[in-house]
Amino acid sequence: MALQIGDKIPEILGIGQDGKEVKSTDFTGKKLALYFYPKDNTPGCTAQACSLRDGYQDLEKAGYAIVGVSVDSVASHQKFIDKFDLPFPLIADVDKKLVQKFGVWQEKKNYGKTYMGTVRTTFLIDETGTIRRIIEGRNVDTKNHAEQILEMEK
């Protein structure tokens, strides 16, 4: 069953672009914006990552750490980070464990084709590792995502 508001996130989140394990305890005492996105270097995903990059200092001031997750490889993530100068880690969920645990690996339709993929979703997690808010699908404003997260703080 997918994680929901009020649930604790898992201890092991996955492997980051640097090949090291990312754990929820790495963010103890901070709020975490854990965002799931479909694919590195696509227009919407790039806009979202760049919004979070551009708003990174404001998000940090608000107490947030940022972590992105997609099913792309470690190598793909490192290229994406380098290309767009992203200041936050990306988890390579190639085995799809995290996307399934969070319930964002779902059936999608595009141009009449049905396939499985990641539904763009951001989980806002408090300092204790508890999910407090979920922004899902078309409700995610990719071009203004940092501002969207900060607005939810008000």
Describe the structure.
With 154 residues, the chain is of the alpha/beta class. The protein has a single domain, classed as Glutaredoxin (3-Layer(aba) Sandwich). Helices cover 28% and strands 30% of the residues. β4, α3 and β5 form a beta-alpha-beta unit. It starts with 11 loop residues before the first strand and ends with a helix.
Count of runs of 4 or more consecutive helical residues: 5
CATH superfamily grouping: Glutaredoxin
The portion of residues forming beta strands comes to 25-35%
Q: What overall geometry do the principal axes of the alpha carbons give?
A: globular
Report the C-alpha radius of gyration, rounded. 14 Å
CATH topological fold name: Glutaredoxin
Note the main attributes of this structure.
alpha/beta; Glutaredoxin; 5-stranded mixed β-sheet; two-stranded antiparallel sheet; globular
Condensed summary:
The chain is of the alpha/beta class and 154 residues long. The protein has a single domain, classed as Glutaredoxin (3-Layer(aba) Sandwich).
